[in-house]
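Running this now, will post back.
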Amino acid sequence: MKRILFYFAIGALFTGVSAQANDAGDLVFPADYASYKVRAEVMYENLQRDIRITSPTRIKESLDADVFALRVQTDIGRVARLDFDVGAMSAGSGSHKLMGGVGLRFLAFEHEAWRGGAFGQVRYAPDLNDRLDLGDGRERVKYDLVEADAGFLVNYRLRLADQFNVVPYAGPVVSIVRLSGDVRGEDGGRFRADEDQILGAVLGLGLEFQGMNGIRFETRYFDDWSVSVSASFVF
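Update: finished.
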């Protein structure tokens, strides 16, 4: 069983570094490290989603955004945490804009090396710039992005050494995306879009070292593959 999970974890690693994502996170809680310490993650995400433009036309397009963020994890109990994300997001070839978010994660069950937990998170990025096909060619658009996710993850902690664990995880996720702004071309007008597919799946791999410091790779699939990479540290 452990050998099968080990091969699964290595496969997830190579899948993660070759794909692209919006991060669901891990199932590490304050009970896993000293109570007087704080855990944080530095993350890079590439978010790729199909969207449905609802104004000024009805057409399917793709959202491609990069995110650099710091996620600070604060405890609201030994088996629950509140996360605060702050960073920068860029869409298409546009410049990076300030992005912020908040998320809640809590432990649902734990049995030997197995662990399950639920999460919900929201993030907001204003004034993103992109060029999208609005039917008569590519137009410049400027919009605010709001994204809300919720899901359930299950992981398995595979101990390979005294201070080294491999932790594959997976689960379903629901994600809502809303874009609202303006078309910047000659005709102008309002711009609105939402997600093309709401239900997706998460597959990730965590490498945990001494003190719950670690590296994590994650892929998500909705209508396209996404990826995130993060480094966590406890201080």
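The chain has a mean pLDDT of 89. More later if anyone needs it.
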